[in-house]
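sry for the spam today, last one i promise. struct tokens for design, 306 residues
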């Protein structure tokens, strides 16, 4: 089944070129189907790129999805045209009147700040509290995973000596968990962050289940509330060249970054990276949608509660 997206969203034409079936909202209204409602809080700087990355993965499902985008009112993005934000994003205060089957909250380039020093942290706290009552299952990615674990469970983040950047091998710790249906015993995930979580903090809280980790990248996936919350520290949604673009950006800034690990063939940045995470990424999103959104959400969306 197709994704239902706002008409004229740039990602529609980009994904059609990849033969991904998307449907604008006008056509979808003619079908007698109750689509799953998914809201995305996109905190990444380049909004259109992140929209396209996430929609690409959400499209790999037989379910019909109605995707909406949320923005926070207390922050104006610098890298996305205001016209795009006005056309395709709604403020939280408007979204808050509704209920959603699933929610995705992305990372944000603010890891160096303590949570309470983030300009929009008060609004994030409101969103986290609202999600508990109005969303069936929420997927927290990278900074959002650290922020959500801190808000709900008091888990701290810790600075790394240097940026963690690359594609790392991970292992499944709970193979019977439906989120891993179809996974290999080991799989690869891109990471790009300056902070981390400590495994001991996760294991010490009985409300949390550590699902996956990496010897090099540490804690990867944590589940809470029987799958109503997933906290993921990596970037499974990244396109093939995203880490490369970040590396080139940092070189131009004079930061002298290290090469992303396990990314370029023979560590040669002039050669295109080998993608080793695409199948895992598609399974992750399709399993989340199937087992923790579609099979758990009520048909009457108004019945969603904590």
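last one done:
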């Amino acid at each position: 089944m197709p994704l239902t997206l706002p008409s004229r969203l740039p990602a529609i034409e980009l994904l059609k070129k990849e033969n991904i079936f998307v449907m604008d909202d006008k056509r979808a209204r003619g079908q007698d189907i109750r689509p799953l409602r998914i809201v995305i809080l996109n905190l990444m700087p380049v909004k259109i790129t992140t929209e396209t990355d996430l929609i690409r993965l959400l499209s790999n499902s037989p379910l019909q999805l109605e995707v909406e985008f949320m923005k926070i009112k207390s922050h104006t993005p610098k890298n996305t045209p205001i016209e795009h934000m006005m056309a395709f994003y709604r403020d939280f205060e408007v979204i808050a009147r509704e209920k959603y089957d699933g929610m995705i909250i992305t990372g944000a380039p603010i890891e160096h700040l303590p949570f309470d020093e983030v300009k929009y942290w008060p609004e994030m706290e409101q969103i986290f509290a609202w999600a508990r009552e109005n969303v069936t299952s929420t997927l927290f990615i990278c900074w959002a995973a650290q922020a959500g674990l801190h808000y709900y469970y008091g888990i701290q983040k810790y600075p790394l000596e240097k940026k963690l950047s690359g594609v790392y091998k991970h292992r499944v710790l709970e193979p019977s968990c439906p989120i891993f249906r179809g996974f290999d015993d080991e799989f690869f995930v891109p990471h790009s962050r300056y902070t981390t979580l400590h495994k001991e903090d996760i294991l010490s809280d009985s409300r949390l289940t550590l699902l996956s980790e990496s010897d090099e990248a540490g804690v990867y996936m944590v589940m809470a509330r029987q799958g109503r919350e997933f906290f993921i520290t990596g970037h499974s949604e990244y396109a093939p060249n995203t880490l490369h673009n970040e590396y080139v950006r940092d070189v131009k800034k004079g930061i002298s970054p290290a090469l992303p690990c396990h990314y370029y063939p023979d560590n040669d940045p002039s050669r295109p990276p080998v993608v080793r995470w695409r199948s895992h990424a598609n399974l992750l999103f399709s399993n989340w949608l199937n087992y923790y959104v579609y099979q758990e959400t009520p048909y009457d969306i108004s019945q969603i509660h904590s």
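The longest helix spans residues 278-294. ok im logging off now
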